[in-house]
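Reviewer 2 asked us to include a model.

Predict the structure of this chain.
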Amino acid sequence: MVTTHGGATGTIEAVQPGVTGREAGLARGLVIGHDAEYAQFVCDSLAGRVDVRMTTSTEMALGLLVSREYEVVVLEHTAAGALPLRALLRHIRSHQRDAGVLVMSQDGLMAREIVECFEADADDYVVAPFHPAELAARIARMVRRVERARMTAPARAARTPRPRTAVADALGGDESIVHPQHGAERAA
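Predicted model (structure tokens):
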């Protein structure tokens, strides 16, 4: 299922009305593109695997990121983008902490910009041209990772922290330095 969001008008058009992708068990995805044809190509590559929403408007994208939870966000980066890449990635992460984020570029980024993507917490980067199957595999990997993290999150939250030991306290509280049962022997 692909839902497009128009740039200037802000209209929403459901390509396949009726059953939503969520009801069909699909992960939710958002494609933020500057080139409508390229963004549509990305959406077509993910059809049947991800319930995709697409927009070519940065303003619309900012609203969509706040309005619902996504498993994956695909961001097409161009030099003509309305927001700097780092600012957009930080906005994505502030509202979509668990989502997989893939940055794509038709032009290829300079090494500095690629490092900037990862420093701003992007999960993956790909430069065009790429095969649709490669893109689908990268997205599927991100979705699996997000779903696995969500399934284990309640178990992690239910765990109680290990009691601190006197030796660990003396070493600045780093529990990884001292094993609680053998702390005195290792610290001596």
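Residues 2-158 form a domain with the Rossmann fold fold (CATH 3.40.50.2300). The beta strands are 2-5, 12-14, 27-32, 50-55, 72-77, 100-105, 124-127. We have added this to the supplementary material.
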